[in-house]
Amino acid sequence: MRIAALVPFLSVSAFAAPAESDAHHDKRQAYGVTSKYCSTASGGLCYLQYYVSQTAPTYRVALPSDAAQNSAYDVVLQVIAPNSLTWAGFAWGGSMIQNPLTVVWPNGNSGQATTSSRWANSRSQPTVYSGATLKSLSSSRNGTHWSVEVVCTGCSKWNNKGLNVNGPTTFSWAFSTTAVQNPGNSAGNFPVHTSSGVFSQPLDYGKNAKTLFTNYINKKG
């Protein structure tokens, strides 16, 4: 697993059911490496980490260990992406359609980032989703990567569905290399993804003691 290249950066700073293809959507990639990542810089908080390649984002998910099936609880999402990527997205229900989408992108070179909660009912530009709220915990940028970490309220449960805390949960992701035209506007449009993928894994790697999880959110927020 070639995650070592990200370590210096972190020490400084801290989407469709079966795959399909059309003129705007490539077949989703279903490869990558999942692992447990624990950060001493964050007081020992652990994440379920998904790594694809050096040219794609790394996604990390953390949650409290007392999270119950079909219940609402906060979840933390961390995204580390190469500077060549203009935005990165994460679908909590494993599909672009009808589940919360978290989309993030850098806002210039200052290390600031824009976060946006979205929802799509079809394969078209996702609209702003009020059912999930995002609070930024950190963002940074160096010569090779940018990173964003958010806590999402409303991403663990939606309609009559939600994350599976008792077995594998399927997530999907996407990113683009085409510039976001108005990067300061969280409600603005963003380009169609360049690539997308899916992975399925139990959430156990990302479970943390409730006190540790809550203290981390409160300290960072």
From TrEMBL:
CDD domains: CDH_like_cytochrome. It comes from the Eukaryota. Pfam families: CDH-cyt. Keywords: Signal. Residues 1-21 form the signal peptide. Residues 87-176 form the DOMON domain. The keyword Signal applies. This is DOMON domain-containing protein. It comes from Cladorrhinum samala.
